[in-house]
Amino acid sequence: MHQILTIIEKDTFGYYAHCPALEGCQTQGDSLEEVEQNIKEAISLYLSTLTEEEKQHLFEKELTAMITEVNVA
pLDDT tens digit string along 14-63? Predict the structure, then answer.
């Protein structure tokens, strides 16, 4: 089992999800549940196009996600 950073954004049209480590891997949905299911499918399809060497390189990367608080003037 591997973990892939996924960003989900909500806007007036619904939800949009993408994976920064997987260029072009993105989807959308009308609900959070729908976009979560859609991005899992998109990730699976994306990974199926990679060679074993590409997958190994992808999962060797160390990623850190954080939320940074800033003051806005």
Answer: 999 999 999 999 999 999 999 999 999 999 999 999 999 999 999 988 88
- Of all residues in the chain, what percent are helix, strand and coil, respectively (each to 5)? 35, 20, 45
Pairing label, strands 26-29, 7-11:
unpaired
Q: Measured between alpha carbons, how far is residue 4 from residues 7, 17, 48, 56, 70 in Å?
A: 10, 12, 15, 13, 26
Count CB neighbours of 17 within 10 A: 22
Helix spans in 3-72 (H): 32-48, 52-60
Whole-prediction pTM: 0.84
Using DSSP's 3-state secondary structure scheme, residue 8 falls into strand
